[in-house]
C-alpha cells in the first residue's frame, strides 16, 4: 500500500528516527525483527551510528509508531503475545530498495557524502561504486511532483570539505546554514576536527590533574608538579 498523497509526507525528527531504526534492524538483525516496543526504543537511543543522539521514552516511540502506521509507513505484527513492529517504507513511499537504503541512513546519521553513504550502507546493501550511490541520490533529488517531489537535497560544499553532503527532506526543508554550522566541528571525512579533538583532550587532562591532586591529598604526599 502506497501513500495516497506522497507530497503530504512530513515526518517529525522522532518519527524519522523510529522509521530509520526499523529499516536498519530489518537488515542488520533479521533474527530479532520485527521489533518489540522496548527493542525499538533501545535502537532509537543508540549512542553509535546516530546523529543526533536521542533519549526517547517508550511513550515517544509509541506515539511515533501510531503516526507512521496511519501513513502506511509502519505496521504491527501481532502474531505473538508481544506486539512487534516493522516498517513499510519502500512500498509506502514508492521508491526502489537502493533509494530506501540511502534514505534510511540519512534519517539515522544525518547529512553524508556519497562516499560516506556507500561505506555506511555496507550492512544494508552493497553498492557497486560511489557513482551508483550518486545515481540513486540524483533520482531522489529529481523526483517528479506527481510522485511527491524531491526526497533529498545536495547541500552546498562546507568550508574545508572536499565533497558535498546529501540530506533527506522527509522532515521538510533543511536549514543549510544550521547544518553547515553543526558540521563545522567535523572534518571533511565526517570525523571530529583536530580542534574538537584537542579541546576534548585538554578537558580530559584537566580532569586527570584534579583526580591526581585529590589522591595525593588523601594519601598525605606531596603533589607532583604537572
Q: Notable features of this structure?
A:
single chain, Arc Repressor Mutant, subunit A, 9 helices, 3 domains, three-stranded antiparallel beta sheet, two-stranded antiparallel ribbon, mainly alpha, 226 residues
List the helices and strands and how they pair.
Blueprint: H1 13-28, E1 35-36, H2 37-44, H3 58-70, E2 74-77, E3 84-87, H4 89-93, H5 97-109, H6 114-120, H7 130-141, E4 152-154, E5 166-168, H8 176-183, H9 194-219
Antiparallel strand pairs: 1-3, 2-3, 4-5
Care to count the β-strands? Answer: 5
The low-confidence runs, each spanning 5 or more residues with pLDDT under 50, are: 1-5, 187-197
How are the strands ordered across the major sheet? 1-3-2
- Rg (C-alpha, Å): 21 Å
Structural class: mainly alpha
Q: Regarding CATH, which class of the largest domain? A: Mainly Alpha
> What sequence of helices (H) and strands (E) makes up the elements?
HEHHEEHHHHEEHH
How can the largest sheet be summarized?
Answer: 3 strands, antiparallel
Please tell me the CATH architecture of the largest domain by its name: Orthogonal Bundle
Query: What coarse outline follows from CA principal-axis ratios?
Result: globular
The domain tally reads: 3
> What is the share of helical residues?
40-55%
CATH superfamily of the largest domain: Winged helix-like DNA-binding domain superfamily/Winged helix DNA-binding domain
Distance from first to last alpha carbon = 66 Å
Structure description:
The strands form two sheets. The chain has a three-stranded antiparallel β-sheet. It has a two-stranded antiparallel ribbon with strand order 4-5. It folds into three domains: 1-94, Orthogonal Bundle (Arc Repressor Mutant, subunit A); 96-185, Orthogonal Bundle (Arc Repressor Mutant, subunit A); 192-226. The protein contains nine helices and five strands; from the N terminus they run H-E-H-H-E-E-H-H-H-H-E-E-H-H. The chain has 226 residues and is mainly alpha-helical. The protein is globular and about 75 Å long.
